[in-house]
């Protein structure tokens, strides 16, 4: 998952030439460190340079750009230590990985201690997110949020699942404004008007719990608040069609219909996933209209995590770090994620009270 030729090629040249057309002094540097400069530009400034982008339509917000100078990959990002007594998931210590856990259909035995452990992991992830939300303020850095999340998780005897997952260097993902998913916590300070997704996964007693939601920083404009409200509704629409014997494709249909109706596009690049002893596995949950086969079965647990984007282009490109996914045209995006457990008679969201 490190930066590859494929990722570099994915940087849209049109966007790049626009950025390079900026007189450097006009790009506000919200943070200058000895190592890197975080660059953000106001959406209105983009409009000045390239009216066809229609940035005004998307509202007023800071656009997140890759820090300069570019550093490829994330191997330079320091990882916080985890106390030795905390049990790591197998991917962190590959030598111990005797089995990848992907055998079978991933269903858990309902009513067993498997279900209890799964629910405990889900509940802890939810608590972590509640705690993180109390710390979201103008001026806080996303790395400060990461530090608090890391601390909270290890204090509760769990491991922050993203840390070391395919080389990811932090305990959580923080995705601001035009960042769709997989933003890496760093020393950029949250701006008044930012919208922020925090995505938390914990590994507790052998099970992963995964949830994310949006947070508003200071005064968020009307367009940003509407995007978040509709994303919340889209997730609920997806949850509402879940149950034993229901087709998986009904989730994508429900989400896509709502997004269409409210004028947003749905990313088809990022999917929900089966979860339990394994972080990501089948069933893969598509959030866009699709015709994939498959029916939901009791004992299956999976995430639904729709990512909605302003306007009609839901595509993304990846920053040189190899992880951070921005919308191609720097429109804002919002995402929300819950874990759904299919029971004998219905479906239960286990990442909320
Ligand atoms: Co997830």
TrEMBL record:
* GO molecular function terms noted in the UniProt entry: initiator methionyl aminopeptidase activity; metal ion binding; metalloaminopeptidase activity
CDD domains, from UniProt?
A: MetAP1
Cofactor binding note: Binds 2 divalent metal cations per subunit. Has a high-affinity and a low affinity metal-binding site. The true nature of the physiological cofactor is under debate. The enzyme is active with cobalt, zinc, manganese or divalent iron ions. Most likely, methionine aminopeptidases function as mononuclear Fe(2+)-metalloproteases under physiological conditions, and the catalytically relevant metal-binding site has been assigned to the histidine-containing high-affinity site.
**Span of domain Peptidase M24:** 117-344
The keyword Hydrolase is assigned to this record: yes
Sorted alphabetically, the keyword list is: Aminopeptidase, Hydrolase, Metal-binding, Protease
What role is this protein assigned? Cotranslationally removes the N-terminal methionine from nascent proteins. The N-terminal methionine is often cleaved when the second residue in the primary sequence is small and uncharged (Met-Ala-, Cys, Gly, Pro, Ser, Thr, or Val).
Q: What is this protein called?
A: Methionine aminopeptidase
Species of origin reads Multifurca ochricompacta
